[in-house]
Specification:
two-stranded antiparallel sheet; single chain; mainly alpha
């Protein structure tokens, strides 16, 4: 910065900009608050259907998010401008004082252009050289600080705006110093990543800037796609000494790169395209070494990568996988060599599909798009689930690992439900879209056709159990066999409906019921769902247009049908449990009881869907219920009693501990549904409190009868096919 430029600066325009951005920040703050309280909350309470559910509701959520990001970006810009204006004003005032002080001591300071200046004694004045040097150094320091303040503010503002090409960035910075430090540390981190010996220092910087958008984008683009791949290969080279905590470094580096992909800057766009292009090529100088996909996929195991990048990366990865494996016939990747690209294990990381699946499971929208890509019966789901020969890998003890296929199940669950793996299920589940519902149908149909796809891979069942709990409204509709009746009112949901056949549902639930985790997730989810439905349909204030025709006089029909479908689902699951316990698998019945107990931490709405995905429902508290939050509504009390019975092993009063024999479970399920009906009736102060238990008993018995008939038909079909 030239001396005269700083000395003569008025900063009027900059001050006006600060004032304008302050007003913009305040207006957007009000707008964001209104968007949250008015737009988003009203959208959640609205009874969406059809296109409104699939398009309008997500659009509203996205709009509210953009308004919130606009406020965040305006606040960051205001903070940077305000801080910069204050700093430059302070440096200008200090420069004026310094020049005045020099003049008092007969020293002339003159701007000589191009950022240079001279300090010399006035004509005839006798000024010691040390004094001249002191003034020169002080003025040079002020100009240096002012230049840095000005240039780093400009750099930060450009970087901030570049984060989002069309919308706004959610990057938040309290002042210019914080934004400038993010960029400076990113440059430093990129340099450190050129030397594997500095892994510990790099890890510290990555950890310090977790979630920092500017840091992440600058680090990734400065290191470059080739530098990123080369570094991760080099730092994991087994011939080198251990370079710090590689497990933590893998996590922090992955999360930083994931954050960087959220940026829309031109430099980051080039980085993403280059990484994908480098996927099939060898990384490093040794022929036959790992290729780009093998290296990069291990940096996708943590963090939330951009959906578009993940989808494009996956498309190119599948193409390369098919080329190497002859369309999935053979394992396409060598997983038995000296490289270990996945310090966190358990697999070595040389099947790139494994790391990619783990990353996909954290990005539901990308999972949906990727898994449904391709024509029917030839989608990526079908290729990975049915056709691909997954490479075999073994743990330290010689046991076979199934990490990749387990992550595939997690990605499928994310893609069907819209919920990332490992995160709590949101209280207000978003409605499913057509792609998600179609993917769920494909999963159900595929397993119904060949149950070995799941029974031979039981570790997938926990993910599929969670997925199925999301689709209980769809499943109950499917087994109602009522295409044109009032079943949609009985099982309300918004968004797209999955339409698996009744036969497919029976076979799928029977198969899923053979695994303790899959069984427990759906069984408990259905119990919660049925209790909530009874509460809902016993509500005397339920609007007439939402009631079943038959319930205009009495809710008997609703309670009987809910109990019937619930009984059929429980009966089918119980048959699967019996098959596991008494059949060739020889599963211990205690493992099912244990799995039910382990699901206790998922109570309070996490495993059920209220009364339907995307449908507003507030469970009514039961009069006289305990004050504990976990036992205040019909559904929560039912689940709590199931858990208590499992813990004590008691079958007295209400026998919630199902045994290994299918026949013995019907009476227990009758009691559960009767209890749920009574609790729901109490919650609604219903005039039918003396009748609901009998309705539930009859309905549940009918449901178990249907389950038995369906299972006999299924067995007959299997024998015929054989």
């Amino acid at each position: 910065m030239d001396l005269d430029a700083l000395l003569g600066a008025k900063f009027t325009s900059l001050g006006d900009a600060v004032s304008d951005w302050r007003q913009m920040r305040d207006k957007l703050d009000t707008l964001a608050a209104d968007a949250r309280s008015q737009l988003r909350n009203r959208a959640k309470k609205a009874d969406w259907a059809g296109v409104n559910s699939d398009v309008t509701r997500p659009f509203i959520d996205k709009t509210v998010g953009e308004i919130e990001d606009a406020h965040t970006q305006a606040e960051s810009i205001y903070n940077i401008l305000k801080d910069t204006c204050a700093e430059l004003t302070r440096y200008r005032d200090s420069l004026e004082f310094k020049i005045a002080e020099a003049d008092w001591q007969h020293i002339r300071v003159k701007d000589t252009g191009n950022g240079s200046f001279e300090v010399r004694a006035k004509d005839g004045a006798n000024v010691p050289q040390p004094t001249l040097d002191r003034f020169r150094d002080d003025i040079a320091d002020l100009l240096k600080k002012a230049t840095k303040s000005d240039s780093t503010a400009k750099d930060a503002l450009y970087a901030l705006v570049d984060q989002s090409k069309y919308g706004f960035s959610d990057a938040r910075y309290k002042d210019r110093d914080e934004a400038a430090k993010a960029l400076e540390d990113a440059e430093r981190a990129a340099e450190l990543a050129k030397d594997p010996a500095m892994a510990a220092e790099l890890n510290r910087l990555l950890k310090d800037h977790k979630g920092d958008s500017l840091f992440a984008e600058r680090f990734a683009t400065k290191l470059g796609p080739k530098g990123t791949l080369d570094y991760w290969l080099t730092v994991n080279d087994p011939s080198r000494a251990q370079q710090g905590d590689l497990e933590e470094l893998q996590k922090n580096l992955s999360m930083t790169l994931a954050q960087a992909t959220q940026s829309d800057s031109p430099a980051m766009d080039r980085w993403e395209r280059a990484v994908i292009k480098a996927g099939p090529g060898v990384v490093g100088k040794e022929p036959g070494g790992p290729v780009g996909f093998q290296v990069m996929s291990n940096l996708m195991r943590y963090g939330d990568y951009d959906d578009t990048f993940l989808s494009k990366y996956g498309t190119r990865l599948v193409a390369e996988d098919k080329r190497r494996s002859d369309g999935g016939e053979d394992p396409g990747w060598d997983t038995d060599n000296s490289y270990g690209l996945n310090p966190n294990g358990p697999d070595g990381g040389l099947d790139p599909m494994t790391g990619y699946m783990k990353g996909l499971a954290r990005s539901p929208d990308a999972a949906t798009d990727f898994l449904t890509e391709g024509p029917s019966e030839k989608t990526n789901f079908h290729y990975l689930f049915n056709d691909r020969e997954w490479p075999k890998e073994y743990g330290a003890g010689g046991e076979e690992l199934h990490t990749g296929k387990n992550y595939l199940a997690q990605a499928i669950a994310a893609g069907t439900t819209g919920t990332p793996v490992g995160e709590p299920i949101p209280k207000d589940l978003p409605p499913h879209n057509e792609q998600q519902a179609k993917l769920f149908e494909d999963v159900v149909h595929t397993i119904a056709k060949d149950d070995g796809k799941l029974t031979d891979n039981g570790y997938m069942s926990d993910s599929f159990g969670k997925m199925t709990a999301h689709y209980l409204p769809d499943i109950n509709r499917a087994i109602s066999d009522d295409a044109y009746g009032d079943t949609p009112k009985l099982y309300p949901l918004t968004g797209a409906q999955a339409n698996p056949s009744h036969q497919d549902v029976t076979r799928f639930l029977f198969t899923l019921g053979q695994n303790p985790e899959g069984y427990a997730m759906v069984e408990l989810g259905q119990k919660q769902y049925a209790a909530n439905l009874m509460d809902y349909h016993l509500d005397p204030d339920l609007p007439a247009d939402k009631r079943l025709i038959q319930t205009s006089e009495s809710p008997e029909h609703a309670i009987r049908r809910i109990s019937e479908q619930s009984g059929e689902i429980s009966g089918t699951l119980a048959a699967g449990r019996q098959e596991a316990v008494l059949g060739p698998a020889n599963e211990k019945d205690e493992s099912f009881t244990h799995a039910l107990a382990q699901r206790k931490n998922l109570v309070s709405g996490a495993i059920g869907t209220g009364i339907g995905v995307g449908t507003t429902f507030v469970a009514s508290p039961v009069a006289g219920a305990t004050t504990a939050a976990a036992a205040s509504t019909a559904s929560s009390m039912i689940l709590e009693e199931i858990f208590q019975a499992n813990e004590t092993g008691s079958k007295e009063d209400v026998g919630y501990v199902a045994g290994g024999k299918w026949e013995a479970t019907q009476d227990e399920q009758v009691k559960i549904n009767q209890r749920a009906a009574r609790l729901a009736s109490d919650a609604q102060n219903s005039p039918y409190q003396d009748d609901v238990a009998e309705w539930a008993r009859n309905g549940t018995a009918d449901g178990f009868g249907k389950a038995h008939t369906n299972l006999e038909q299924m067995a007959g079909d299997i024998e015929t096919d054989a």
